[in-house]
Design goal:
- There is one protein chain.
- This protein is α+β, with helices and mostly antiparallel strands and 116 residues long.
- It is built from 1 helix and 7 strands, in the order αβββββββ.
- Strands 3, 4, 5 and 7 form a 4-stranded antiparallel beta sheet that branches.
Length: 116
């Protein structure tokens, strides 16, 4: 089988393009950023649902206060979803948040906000 000039040069062109693309990607560098990395933040929270009661424990291992709030979505359309007041989880402290639905709990989570 004999290859024409066009079909013979096609694999060579593909190999050349792939090599150049690999070199461009392997030598690409992210621009230098003069900003220092952000300090770690945020309490670690554990949410537990038992029947219609929700309890969350949040432990803050960082030096900055974290304001946490418990959010509960109830499964029934007539049951009122709740958002707790923000509680300050101070450094090296654990806080407890609790709430409930009348019937089943659909979803529960904790939100975080930096202290001021």
């Amino acid at each position: 089988m004999r290859l024409s000039r066009r079909t013979a040069s096609l694999p060579l062109a593909v190999a050349l393009v792939m090599t150049l693309a690999y070199q461009a990607v392997s030598h690409a560098r992210a621009p230098a950023d003069d900003q220092e990395p952000a300090e770690p933040f945020g309490a670690a929270c554990w949410v537990r649902v038992i029947d219609s009661t929700v309890t969350a424990y949040c432990r803050n291992p960082y030096p900055e206060t974290d304001h946490v709030s418990l959010h509960i979505e109830c499964a029934r359309w007539w049951d009122i979803d709740t958002d707790s007041a923000r509680v300050a989880a101070e450094p090296a402290r654990t806080v407890r948040l609790a709430g409930r639905c009348w019937k089943e709990v659909d979803e529960a989570w904790v939100s975080h906000r930096r202290g001021s």
